[in-house]
Specification:
246 residues, alpha+beta, 3-stranded mixed β-sheet, 8 strands, 26% helix, rod-shaped, BTB/POZ domain-containing protein KCTD2, BTB/POZ_dom, T1-type_BTB, SKP1/BTB/POZ_sf
């Protein structure tokens, strides 16, 4: 039988397992076989180069407060004081200055913005509070420190017609109340006995009200019983009319 001869140059091409041919340090070793693709076997860690190739997760989309986003909110710089509100609030009066400026972005209204992005409005911030609160809840609330004429001036500037009518009505009511002068009262003093007191007080009408009860400290015999006497003070508001005092 013929004997098989192996070429020494081919000794390094054998598999790495079991034969002992092609020593690791020998000159006859060929190129290493490629590692099969797939997950890393358990118990072996990935090389630093492989870990560096893994992409890191980037930042997610920005969260928007209230679900509507930051575009819902508007910053107003009124005379150096900042106010924060929503476009929905400013849009309740479509013809108003604020709605045209912040919601409709009317090109005819050229307003600058400060470094924070707030709209610059050269008006008194003291009287802007009642204006903004009216747009929020539809009620006119004016503190004692504010003059109604000042709120009216701002309402006319911002072109809020419903608020202008409301402020004018309040000013007119206050003027009518002042022209009538202070409220006056008329008093009556009624003398009655003890047994008549309850009936007299319960039957008072036409605006009369009980004010004071005074015992006059005298009694007299009426039959077999002693009857005490009282003075009952009642009052009624005196109304003024255009024809004079009634």
């Amino acid at each position: 039988m013929a004997e098989l001869q192996l070429d020494p140059a081919m000794a390094g091409l054998g598999g790495g397992g079991g034969s002992g041919l092609g020593d690791a340090g020998g000159p006859g070793r060929g190129p290493p076989s490629p590692r099969p693709a797939g997950p890393t076997p358990r118990g072996h860690s990935r090389s630093p180069a492989a870990a560096a190739q893994q992409p890191e997760p980037g930042p997610g989309p920005p969260e928007r407060a209230g679900g509507g986003g930051s575009a819902r909110w508007v910053r107003l710089n009124v005379g150096g004081t900042y106010f924060v509100t929503t476009r929905q609030t400013l849009g309740r009066e479509p013809k108003s200055f604020l709605c045209r400026l912040c919601c409709q972005e009317d090109p005819e209204l050229d307003s600058d913005k400060d470094e924070t992005g707030a709209y610059l409005i050269d008006r008194d911030p003291t009287y802007f509070g009642p204006i903004l609160n009216y747009l929020r809840h539809g009620k006119l609330i004016i503190t004692k420190e504010l003059a109604e004429e000042g709120v009216l001036e701002e309402a006319e500037f911002y072109n809020i017609a419903s608020l202008v009518r409301l402020v004018k009505e309040r000013i007119r009511d206050n003027e009518n109340r002042t022209s009538q002068g202070p409220v006056k009262h008329v008093y009556r003093v009624l003398q009655c006995q003890e047994e008549e007191l309850t009936q007299m007080v319960s039957t008072m009408s036409d605006g009369w009200k009980f004010e004071q009860l005074i015992s006059i400290g005298s009694s007299y015999n009426y039959g077999n019983e002693d009857q005490a006497e009282f003075l009952c003070v009642v009052s009624r508001e005196l109304n003024n009319s255009t024809n004079g005092i009634v």
